Amino acid sequence: MRKNIIILIGALILSCSSGKNTIDLGYEDYSKNNPLLLLGANSTIRASDITLDVVDPSKAIYTVKKAVTIYDKEDKDLATVVLDYGEFKTINYLKANIISKNGQVVRSYSIKDAQDYSTAWGSTFLSDVRLKILELPYSTFPYTIEVEYQQTYTGLLNLPDWRPQVLGQSVESARFTLIDRQNSGVRFYNKNIDIEPTESTTVNGKSYSWNIAMKLPVKKEPYGPSSSDLLPHILVAPGTFEMDNSKGNASTWKNFGLWYYELGKDTRELPDEAKAEINTLIAGVDTEEEKVKILFDYLQQKSRYVSIQLGIGGWKPFSAEYVFNNSYGDCKALTNYMQAALEFVGINAESVLIKNGTNEAGMEVDFPSNQFNHVIIRVTLENGEEIWLECTSKYLPPNHIGSGNAGKYALLITERGGEVIKTPENVFEDNKTERYWQFVINELGVTEVNGRIKSEGILQDDLLYQILPVSEKERLDWLQETFEVDDSNVLEYDFSKISENDDYASYSFKAQLKNYVQTSSKRLYIPVNKMNRWRFSISEDEKRQQPLLLPYAFVESDSIIIETPVGFSIEAAPKDVEYKHSFGEFKATFEVKSDGEIVYKRYFALQEKTIEAEKYEGIQDFFQKVRAADNQQLVLVKKEG
């Protein structure tokens, strides 16, 4: 009996072994590694062989084979394989191995082991795109994962790029092959890589191949450029393409824009009920600018944003009638509805495709292709004035498109085709906050403060998003958090004017702050700017190589009035300071008025949001000095007698 059990166990072991995946990468022993590739690396691409085979304008086959050695937990996420699929993309197969540091296969996986998820979550209301997620867990570093999978694309607008490494990853060997079987005009664009492909022509069509080897890891410095601006990659795009019986040509921006225009031109017919509502709204309104404001406010009040990704609906907007009847839509649908409303009243409006994201790599102007994830509107009035609209926002006023859209190259869509333009961008004076604080302090240090805050530009946008979506209680909680005082009591507050004017947002409050002032038996220690201290800091780095990217440039002005208690005199006062650089300016002054009132004024301007590496030490020192100035104190001592 015992002998039979042993034989059975042996058979099971043999059965498991025979089930191991074979992934041919030509690699013999993963237990050995070149020491040079370990320097500064969290992982190494040991071998990678990726092929994109464009069969015809409506079909491509994408095959990936790669092995990655993971050294530490920083890159453990690389042991998760995520594949999306849907109407225009299928998964043909997936297999993977986990290999120990000794080179032994620990476990093999197939697509049956992957979990399946819908992408319809959060703001994504409808989607036919699903995910296969395969976890490859192993607890002992280093270990290697081998992965092989193949997908078929049946819509070629979104062909995969080649990105041979991620941040912090070295590369031992990587190859990418692009095949154009029908010479359909498939194109590529080298970015951050100076290797030209090897070209060949065979019975299978034209082939391009890139190879890289022994590439050291690239690190992103704090607040540095995005990985797309640092790492090598090859962008790939079709010439002619087909999606769901819609044929297009992406070889020029004009042709790409014409395809998008034709896709949506029959979707902007408003129903009669919508036309009647619009006519009522603008009755008696003479100026185009006021009509735009009224109709944009109408859209924001009536509709909400949801993401819809169904088939070609990922590109073709839902009709204006659909948005009117359902009061929701994605960026394409809401933009389309707004465009329809403006065209109905005779105002010229055009959609603009853009790559949204703050400090994200922008559009590659020299490579016509699908590089977009968002759409906004440019309105052109009869007098030539332009008004920009971000139709997915319920809170931003006209000409506020958000920092993720500002100052970027984008594609204007017209009936004549696409045209590359640049969106407007605020200069630092446009992003302005003015604050007025009046502090009344008694002999025990208990403080009463009256505050008025007014913000413009991107700072206005941030304030609108903080206040408008939330309840009164949440607004009160937010206000108390800004005091940074343990014991505070808001006596009055007024947010009624937060969105009263498109040019700025403002609010006011009155509060009692019990721990704002530190006390001793004779002294009061009063922070001159605890309400708006500069806290942002960057580490010292004498060898900085990458630019420092900040979210936006800005200017802020603070007027602080301090009324001190009777019977106290000034023992120590803040120093006047002034610092000027090409990238910014800071100035603070302290004055005692004849009536004993103390006035502290502060001006802080960050004039550039991109700081080149050679200026890094200067701005690090500048920020440190600003923090020190903001932490100054006024010390009052009780008079004798």
Query: Which regions are unreliable across 5 or more consecutive residues at pLDDT < 50?
Result: 1-18
Q: Report the sheet with the most strands, covering strand number, pairing sense and barrel closure.
A: 8 strands, mixed
State the strand order across the main sheet.
5-4-9-2-1-10-13-12
What is the strand content?
A: 35-45%
**Rg, Å, rounded:** 31 Å
Query: Can you count the beta strands?
Result: 38
Distance between the termini: 105 Å
Mean pLDDT: 91
Helix-residue proportion: 10-25%
Total number of helices:
10
Structural class by sheet pairing and helices? alpha+beta
The shape is: globular
Would you write up a description of this structure?
- With 641 residues, the protein is α+β, with helices and mostly antiparallel strands.
- It is built from 10 helices and 38 strands.
- An 8-stranded mixed beta sheet has the order 5-4-9-2-1-10-13-12, with no helix packed on it. An 8-stranded mixed beta sheet has the order 27-28-26-25-32-36-35-34.
- Helix 5 (288-302) packs antiparallel against helix 7 (331-344).
- The longest helix is centred in the N-terminal third of the chain and has 17 residues, at 2-18.
- The radius of gyration is 31 Å and the shape is globular.
- The relative contact order is 0.08.
- Mean pLDDT is 91; it is low at 1-18.
Helices, strands, pairings?
Blueprint: H1 2-18, E1 43-56, E2 59-70, E3 80-85, E4 89-99, E5 105-110, E6 115-118, E7 124-127, E8 130-135, E9 143-153, E10 169-180, E11 187-191, E12 198-202, E13 205-215, H2 227-230, E14 233-237, E15 240-243, E16 246-249, H3 253-264, H4 272-281, H5 288-302, E17 304-305, E18 307-309, H6 320-326, E19 328-329, H7 331-344, E20 348-354, E21 374-380, E22 386-389, E23 409-414, E24 417-422, E25 432-441, E26 447-455, H8 457-467, H9 472-483, E27 488-494, E28 505-513, E29 518-519, E30 523-527, E31 548-549, E32 554-563, E33 568-572, E34 577-580, E35 584-592, E36 598-606, E37 610-611, H10 616-630, E38 633-638
Parallel strand pairs: 1-10, 7-18, 17-19, 25-32
Antiparallel strand pairs: 1-2, 2-9, 3-8, 4-5, 4-9, 6-8, 10-13, 11-14, 12-13, 15-16, 20-21, 20-23, 21-22, 23-24, 25-26, 26-28, 27-28, 29-30, 30-38, 31-37, 32-36, 33-38, 34-35, 35-36
Helix pairs in contact: 5-7, 6-7
